[in-house]
Amino acid sequence: MQLLTISQFIGHFHPVLVHLPIGILILAGLFHLLSTTKTYAFLIPVVRITYLLGAIAAVASCITGYLLSQTSDYDIQLITLHQWLGIGVAVVATLLYLLLKHQNDRWLLRLLTVVVLIGIIITGHYGGSLTHGSGYLLAGLQGKSSNKMAIPPVTNVQQAKVYSQLVQPLLKNRCYSCHGAEKQKGKLRLDSKISMVKGGEGGAALVVGKAAESELVKRLLLPLDNEDHMPPKEKPQLRQEEIALLKWWIDQGADLHKTVAELIPNPEISAMLSAFQLGSKQTQEAGNDWLNQKVAAADATALKKLKDAGVVVLPVQQNSHYLSVSFITAEVTPALLEELKKLEKQLVYLELAYTALNDDGMKALSALKNLIQLNVRGTAITNQGLVHLKGLQQLTTLNLVETKVSEEGVSQLRSLKKLKSIYLFQTSVDKQRLAALKAQFPGVTLDTGGYQVPTLATDTTVVHK
Question: What is the DSSP string of 267-282?
Answer without folding.
Answer: HHHHHHHHHHHH-HHH
